[in-house]
Queue: 4 jobs
Job 1
Amino acid sequence: MIIIKNQTQIKGIRKSSQLAAQVLKYLATFVKPGISTQALNDIAHKYIIEHNAIPAPLNYNGFPKSICTSINNVVCHGIPSEKKILKEGDIINLDVTTILDGYYGDTSKTYPVGKISEIAKRLIAVTEKSLELSIKSLKPGKTLNECVGQVIEPLVKSENFSIVRELGGHGVGVNFHEDPFVYHFDTKKNNVDLKPGMIFTIEPMINASTDPRVTIDGQDGWTIRTFDGSLSAQFEHTILITPTGSEILTI
C-alpha cells in the first residue's frame, strides 16, 4: 500500500534526504585512482554517524556495509572491499541511504575515476539526463508510467543503450523500501496515479549495450552485474509529489 506522507513525515524525510545528499557530495571528493571502496565506505559511515544518523544499508537483509559501491559492469549492490581499488578509467556508482530521526533519504550518482572512455562519458550523461527528464515530467494526475517509463525508454533506446528491467525505484521515507515499485521502462505495471504526498525514488540503471540482462553474484548474493560485461550507470533521487509538480528532496 502506498503511504501518502503527512507534513511531519515530509519534513523528516526531507532532512534525511538532504543529509544523504551531503554525504554523497562529500564522498565524491575522495573518488580518485588508488582509493579502495572500503575506504569510501568508512568515510561515509563516519560522516553519517557524526551527523546523528544511521547508514540504512548496514545489516539490511544481511548487507554487510554502509553504502553500495558499484564499479564498471556492476549494476548495483556492489559490496565495499579493501581489495577493490579504483583505477584510472573506472566509473563508480555510490549509493547512500540515511536514517535520520527514523526517516529515510536515498540517493546515488555515478562518477568517473580520472579520465574515462567516450562511451563511459556518454553512458553517464544519458543516465543522468533520463532521470532529470523524468523528474521534470512528474505532476499529480499523471501516472508513473507516463512520467518515468515513457520518458526514459525512448531516450535510452535512441542511444542504443538498455534499461535494467528486474530492478527499479521504490517508495521510501518511513521505511527503506515501500510501494510503489518504480519501473524505468514503458509498462502497464507502472499505471500508478501520482498524488501529492507520495515519496519515491527514481533510479534508472542503464547498460552501455542493447542487452538489459543482469546476473547476481552466486557467492555474495548481492552484487548484480551486466550479463554481457558492459558498463552500467545509475543516478537516483528521492522525490516528493507536490500539489503542482514535484520536489527533489536529495539535494
Job 2
Amino acid sequence: MQFLLLVFIFLLAVIILYMGVFTIALDKLGLSTHSAMLLLACTLIGSGINLPLFQITADAPPDEEIQSLQGLLFGRPLPFTGKTIVAINVGGALIPIGFSIYLASHNPLEFTRILLAIAIVAAVSYFASRPVRGLGIGMPVFVAPITAALTALLIAPDSSAPLAYICGTLGVLVGADLLRLNDIRKIGTPVASIGGAGTFDGIFLTGIVAVLLA
C-alpha cells in the first residue's frame, strides 16, 4: 500500500512538473496560463485522433503481433492487408501547424528566415530519423529541439522562442514525416500517421524543449 502511495505521489509530481515546464515554455511565447492549458489539453486529446488521407501499397510486416493503430477513427487494431493507410494526427500535426501559423503572424519574423530555419531542422531530422518496421519513423529525442533552438538563436535572436517552436515542430514534420513518406512502404504497418505514433513525442517535445533552450 505504501509503495502504491509513493508511486502515485511520484506520478503526481511528474505531472505537475511536466505541466509547469509546459506552461513556462508557452509563457515565453506570450500565452496565458489558461491558453497554455487549453493548448496542452487539445494536443493530448488530439494525439489520439488520426484522420485518414490516402492509401498506398506496402511490404508485409515482420510480426503480426505489433500491428495496431491507436486513434478514435480506428477503434480497433487493423490487420495488415498489403496496404498502408496514411493519416494525419490532430495533436501531433494539425495543432502544431495551426499554432505555428499563429506564432508566425503575431511575431516580427521574416518569411524567408522561417523557411530557412524549417529547412535546417528538416534536413537534420531527415538524416537523424529511421523507419522502424512495424512501428513508424523514429529519431533521437533531443536532436531536433537542440537544432531548432540553436537555429532560432542564430537566425532571429530577438524572436528566438517563437521561431524555435515553429522550425522545431514543422521541421520534424517535414523531415521525419513528409520526406519519409516513401519509407512508409517498408514499415509494414496498416496505418502510418503523420505527426503520430513514433514522431508525436518528438514533435511535442521538440516544440517545448526548443522554446526553453532558445
Job 3
Amino acid sequence: MKKIAVIVAAGQGTRMGKELPKQFLLLHGKPLLYYTLKTFLDAYKDLQVVLVLPVDYIELGKEILDAYFSSKPVKIVSGGTTRFMSVKNGLSIIEEEAIIFVHDGVRCLVSNELIHRCYETALSEGSAIPVISVEESLRKITEDGNEIIDRNTIKIVQTPQTFHSKILLPAYRIDDKEHFTDEASVVEAFGLKLTLIEGEKQNIKITRPVDLQFAELLVNN
C-alpha cells in the first residue's frame, strides 16, 4: 500500500517566545523539522511526504529540503488559518489510495517503531491513533466547584494519526468546526470509529523552551 506522510508545520509557535517559528529552530545545528522529516523518510523507503508550511516560510522550507533531502520525494504546500485547513491543504494533493500519516512537524522525537505500528494498524483497521495514559491526578471544574476524574478513563492523544485514504479524504470534505483539534475529531464527526494504539512518552510536541531543552537531550545528532 502506498504511504504518504502529511507533516503539518504551518504554525507560528508563539508560545516558544521566538520570532522564528519553532519548527525552524535549531537542534544540534539542524532545524527541528529536519529530524521529523528524516525519521519518516527513514521509516519506509517508499514513503512520500507532503510538507505543510506557513506561506511566509516556504522558501526557508525549500532551503532545508535542498540542504538535507534533495533526492527525497517531498512536496510543499501552504498552510491555512487553522490546523483543519492546513491538513486539508495537504490532503488536497493526494489522489491515489494510500495509508496517510498526519504528524505534527514539531514532534521530532517520534520513532520508526511507532510509525510502523501506526501503518500496520491503519492497514488492518482503517485508523490508528497513538495515545498515552495520564499519570497525574485530574480534577474537573464544575458549577459547584470541582470533582475528581478517573484518570484511567482519560488518554493523551499524539500523532502520527494514521488513516486509510478512503476514510480520511472524504472526512475532510466537511466544514471546519471549532472542536476539530486533530484528525481523529474530524473522522469521528464523519461518523466513524477510531482505533487507539499505545503511543510513546518521549513523542512530545515541542511547544515551550523546556520542551526544546528536553529534545536536545534525546534527539540523535
Job 4
Amino acid sequence: MSVAVIDSGGANLGSVVQALNRIGVDSHLTREPEAIQRASHVILPGVGAAAAAMAALRQAGLIDVLKNLQQPVLGICLGLQLLFERSQEGDVDCLGIIPGTVARLPETAGLRLPHMGWNQLEWQMDDPLAAGLDPKAWFYFVHTFVAPPGQAVATSVHGQAFAAVVRQDNFAACQFHPEKSAGPGQRLLQNFLSY
C-alpha cells in the first residue's frame, strides 16, 4: 500500500500523517504529480481557505491530476469542499468532481461560527466508510463553510443540516477530521484504506 497525502498547504497535514502512522500505515506528504498518480490511495486534507488551497493546487500542477485519479481518494475538511464545483469562500472554482456549491453556514443566534466541536452523523445510505462504525459515534468538526446536504452519504447539523460525508465514484470525503476523532476516526481511515 502506498498512501499519498497531498500537500495542499493546510495546517492539519502533520496530524493526518501521524494518524496514519498510528494505524501502521506509511504515507508520504507530496505535491509531486507522479507520486500521487502512483499511490494506491490518495488523501486530500485541508484547513484554510478554498481560494488559497486551489491556488496552491494549481501552482503545483495538480488540478487535472486530481480530477483524473482512478484510485480511492479521501478528502478531509477543506478537501471535501474542494471536490465541489464552486465555493463561496473566495468565490472560487473548485475541482468540479461533485456538482454543487459550498456555502457559508448562516449566522444563527446562539450558534458559534466557525462550527468547532463534536457532532454525530446521520447516515443517509450504506457506505464502505461506515463499516463497523457505531451509528452514534462522535466526530470532530472545525469549519464555517458547508456542502449541500442533498449530495450527502451522511449529514450532520449545526443550525442546519449539511453534508458530513460525500461520495462520487472513487472520490469520498468527510467534513470532519477523522485524524482528530479518536477511535471512530481511526476506524473510518482504516475503512478507506481497505478498499
